[in-house]
Amino acid sequence: APAPLALLMPVYRGLAETRAAIASALKAKPSEARFIVVDDASPEPDLAAWLADQAGKGRFELIRHPRNLGFCAACNTGFAAAPGCDVLLLNSDILLPAPAVETLRRVAYASPATGTVTPLANDATICAYPAPNTANPMPDLRETTRLNRLAAKTNGLAWVEIPTGIGFCLYIRHDCLAAVGGFRAEIFAQGYGEENDFCLRARQRGFLHAAAMGAYVAHKGGVSFRSAARALVRRNLALLNRLYPGYTALIAAHNAADPAAPHRAALDAARLLAERRGRPAVLLISHAHGGGVATRVRAVMAQLRAQGCYPLLLTARRPAAPERTPYPWPSLLCAGDPEAHPNLVFTLPGGLPRLLALLRRLKVTRVELHHALGQHAAVRGLAAALGVPQDIVAHDYASFCPRVNLLARPAPEAPPRYCGEPDPKGCARCCARDKAEIAETISIPRLLARSRQEFAAARRVITPSADMARRLARHFPGLEPEIIPWEDDSAPRPLRKPRPGARRVAVIGGIGPAKGLDVLLGCAADSRRRDLPLDFTLIGGSADDAALIAAGVKVTGPYQPGEAEALITSLAPDLAFIPSIWPETWCFVLGEAWRAGLYTVVFDLGAQAERVRATGRGAILPLGLPPERVNNSLLNITF
Length: 639
Fold this sequence. Notes:
- By secondary structure, the chain is α/β, with parallel strands linked by helices.
- The protein is 39% helix and 18% strand.
- The strands form four sheets. Strands 1, 2, 3, 4, 5, 6, 7, 8 and 9 form a nine-stranded mixed β-sheet that branches.
- Strand 10, helix 12 and strand 11 (310-316) form a beta-alpha-beta unit.
- The longest helix is centred in the middle third of the chain and has 16 residues, at 261-276.
- It starts with a strand and ends with a helix.
- 45% of the residues are buried.
C-alpha cells in the first residue's frame, strides 16, 4: 500500500546551489509530505546559519550532525527519521519541478516489484538526457519545468527497467527501504556508489528499479565533493565490482540495449515541435565533416531564424571511429546542434517512413540540399517525398567527381594534383586507377545522370563563386547556377604591408593533401635546406602535424569558429599563404586572413584566385610551382 512521503536532502557544501535546490523542493513538495534536511556538519558557516534560519521558520525539519559523517550516514539519519515513509532522496544541487514528484510516485506504484524510481536529468549517467552517460548542460528552473512538462506530455507514466537507480533524485519505496536497510556507510564513506550498492542488494531481494520517462530534474553534480569526486568514483567503482562481480558488464549490457532510446527520441521530437511555434520549417541536409560546409550551414540557419523560419538540420550521426566506419552512417535530425537533439537517429532506408512522418508533423516547407556525404542516398528524395521544393547548394564537385575535389594521383605513391577535368571516360579511368577517397560507389554515367535529374528538378542551384558556376555549366550544359557569395568581399579590408627581410608566413585552417599539406612540407624543407628567413606557422591542424613539426612548421592546433582572427593577430604574421591545390568553391580562410589584415598568396585556380584577382588583396602563383620558387615569392612579394 502507498505510504506517506518524505523528501530528504543531505547538505554539506554550496550555499547558492543548496538554496536553489531547497526553494525548488519546497514548491514541489506535496502539502502532506515531510521535508527533512540533514546538515552533515557543513564547513561553510553561512550555509549552516541559513539552514538553521530556514528551519526556525518552519520551512523544513533540520537535523545537524555534530561532526561530518559523510553522505551515506547523512542519508541514513534521514531514513531513520522517516520510518514507514517513501523517501524522495534529493541531492543539494538539483532543481525539482513540482509535477515531477507525482510522476515519480505514480511510477513507483505502477509495479508491485518496484523498489526505486529515477527521473531523467541533464547529468544522471544512464538516465541522462538528452545524451545518456554525458554531463549535459544544466538548465535553469524555468527550462527544467518546461522539459518536465514536455516529458510528462510525451512519455506520461512510461518507465523502463534500469540496473540501478541514480542517487541525485531517487524515489525509494518504503517496503524496499525496509527490506534492504540503509546505505552502507562503513563501505562507501563519503559517497558515490552507495545507491548502486543499495539497488543491487534490492535486486537480490526481487525489487526492480525504474527510470521514469515522463519526469525530468536538473542536476549540477559534484558540488559537495568537488575535486575529490573523481577519486571517490574510481575507488567505489572498484569496490562495487569486488562486491558484485559482473557489475560493469551489467551496466554495459544496459547501455547496449538502451531501452530508454525511443523515449528520449520522442522527447527530442516533442521539443522540436514545441520550439517551431508555428514558424515555417526549412530542412537543410548536410554532412558531419565540418569545414566550410558547416560554416555556411550555420550562417544559413541564422539567416532563416532572422527571417522568421525554423531551420532543421539533417546530418549524419558521426560514429566514434569515423575512419573505420563505412558509409552510409545513420541520419540525425536536429535544430542545428546535434548535441542538443542527439536521439532523432534514423537508419535509412528502413527508418525513412518514421523520418518522413516527423518532417510532415514539423511542416517542412522547403529543403536545401547542401551535402549528402555520409548519408544514405534516400535523403536525396526527401523533398520529392514531402512534395516541397528543393534548392541545391553546391559546395564542391560531388555532382560529377566521385572524389569531390577534382584531384587525382598520377601514380599510387604520387601526391595528388588537379585533374584538369577530363571527359567522363577520363574520369572513369581515374576512379578505376585510384579508389582512394571515393566515398560513394557509383559509376560516372550514373552519377552524371543523377545530378542532371536533381538539377533539373531543383527550384534553384546555388554556387558561391562564378568560377564554380562555370565549371558546373561546362559539365551540365544549360545549367545556370545562381551565384551567392558566402561573404562580402566589397567591404574595406586594410592590409598590413609585409616587412622586408625575414617573414612570418601563416597557413590558416585545417589542411590535408587537398589543402596543400605536401606543398607546405616541401616549402618548409626547402626553407630549412637553404636556411631561408621564413618562419611557417599553421594556424589550425593538419592530417600530419608530426611531419610538419619535424619539418620546422609551428602548429597551433585546431581553433573554434570565431577564434581565427584573434589568433592570427596574436601571432603577428607578415603574409598568409593558402597552399590549396584544388579549385576551391569559396575558401573561408581567405576571408579570415583578410579580416586579420594579411596580404594573401594563393595558387591560380578556383575561387581563391578569382577572389584575389577581383580584390587585389594578394598574389597569385602558378599552380605546380616548385617549393623553391614558392619560397622565393614569399620572400620577395610586396605591395
